[in-house]
Amino acid sequence: MNVSFDNRFASSPDEVMNLDTTRLRKKFLIEKIFEADVFHFTLTHYDRFIAGGAMPVKETLALPNPDSLKAPYFLDRREMGIINVGGTGTVTADGNSFTLQYKEALYISKGTKEVTFASADANAPAKFYINSTPAHHEYPTRKVSKDDAEKVTLGALEQSNHRTINKLLVNSVLPTCQLQMGLTELQPGSVWNTMPAHTHDRRMEVYFYFQVPEGQSVCHFMGQPQETRHIWMQNEQAVISPDWSIHSGAGTSNYSFIWGMAGENMDYGDMDHCKITELR
């Protein structure tokens, strides 16, 4: 088992205004999430958020304890959310096993010492997309299926943004310290997500794009509302969104994405909306 752990320092809006394409991608794009029998983690200093993935193929993978965390074990001072975007898999947390089907989620409590990841079929391995944030309290570990999620349908085909939001790990479904995760699915013919765009000064986000058809891409928009930038993204890549930045995307086809949030406010509706006609 190998572990890749990347550290990303925070950037101010003034700094980002002066970045070229290569440097913008280096600071915010997470290009590789899944690799056979490898953990890929990226820690951003925006709210100490970690995004990454595990794809067990030939072996059961044990959650490592990277030196950068400076902790006795990974979840000593952290909570974790997992959404499976591959074949059937099992996550075992301190001896309790949870089978995750495609698009099912698991919340793992702070203080959990041993976590392992396994696939039911090496030919169709599980792909465990992982988010983790600092935590101050132990809440129960719990599996959440799409049937358990709070669902909201927004947009319309006429605006190319007809989508269903599945709120999986949010405080209206189960208690967490600060981590929130969900899954948004765009309907055929729709390509825009999170439009009209917004910011929220008390939370940052990471978007993970998947179900992007072969040969297609997503253009992710970020930056201050009057100073936007874009990053072209491929299937199963993630992008970091600071609290001062919009986070929206348009694809050359419909797709799905997972949003993960962290910060001081758990109110999902805490948003400062930006009028479409005022974006620059």
Automatic annotation (TrEMBL):
Binding site for Zn(2+): H198, H200, E205, H247
Organism listed in the record: Danxiaibacter flavus
Gene that this polypeptide is encoded by: kduI
Function: Catalyzes the isomerization of 5-dehydro-4-deoxy-D-glucuronate to 3-deoxy-D-glycero-2,5-hexodiulosonate.
InterPro entries per UniProt: KduI, KduI/IolB_isomerase, KduI_N, RmlC-like_jellyroll, RmlC_Cupin_sf
Cofactor(s), names only, from the UniProt record: Zn(2+)
Keyword Isomerase tagged: yes
CDD domains: cupin_KduI_C (cd20491), cupin_KduI_N (cd20294)
Enzyme's top EC category: isomerase
Protein name as annotated: 4-deoxy-L-threo-5-hexosulose-uronate ketol-isomerase
Protein EC: 5.3.1.17
Gene3D superfamilies: Jelly Rolls, pectin degrading enzyme 5-keto 4- deoxyuronate isomerase, domain 1
Transmembrane residue ranges: none
Pathway, per record: Glycan metabolism; pectin degradation; 2-dehydro-3-deoxy-D-gluconate from pectin: step 4/5
Keyword annotations: Isomerase, Metal-binding, Zinc
Cofactor detail note: Binds 1 zinc ion per subunit.
Molecular-function annotations in GO: 4-deoxy-L-threo-5-hexosulose-uronate ketol-isomerase activity
Reaction equation(s) it catalyzes: 5-dehydro-4-deoxy-D-glucuronate = 3-deoxy-D-glycero-2,5-hexodiulosonate
